[in-house]
Specification:
- The protein is 27% helix and 34% strand.
- By secondary structure, it is α+β, with helices and mostly antiparallel strands.
- The chain has one domain (15-148): Electron Transport, Fmn-binding Protein, Chain A (Pnp Oxidase, Chain A, Roll).
- Strands 1, 2, 3, 4, 5, 6, 7, 8 and 9 form a nine-stranded mixed β-sheet that branches.
- The protein is elongated, with a radius of gyration of 19 Å.
Length: 178
Amino acid sequence: MDSINKNQPEENRENLNRDGALDKIKEIIKQSDTCFFCTNAEGGQSNGVRPMSIQQVDEQGYLWILLANDSHTHEEVAIDPKVKLFFKGSQHSDFLYLDGWATIQTDHEKVKELWNPILKTWFTEGENDPRIALIRIEPSEGYYWDTKHGNFVAGVKMMIGAAIGKTLDDSIEGKLKV
């Protein structure tokens, strides 16, 4: 098991705690704020999985999502607040998995802070739409896969490694403990 990592000539694992973990979460979500948001729902058309957009990762590390208060997501989180989120930042790097606890909130000031005009697509009455609710996610732990020096350097190292028959990828991965 793990033969690829054992062939790696340089260290490619780094577990991150609190501040380091929050920095990595913010970095990857900045690359792509859309995730697969998973509840523990059994049944339904999507079995509790749907794409959602993170509106903000605040200074305390909470992730914020706007949703409709009459949605399946709202109902599922109200029943069981344990959630999982999966992010893909780019084609070859910036992957993130998070476990967390979600709470439903109704805070009009926070909605105004997070409001973006494109959201009117779903909330046709604008930021005052009575169907708007918030989910605040408190991540507890997760795992990330990334590159140490960016996609360009990673690509060059992969090409050299392929040419000489040696594992030279620029990957870094590790556990996140928030």
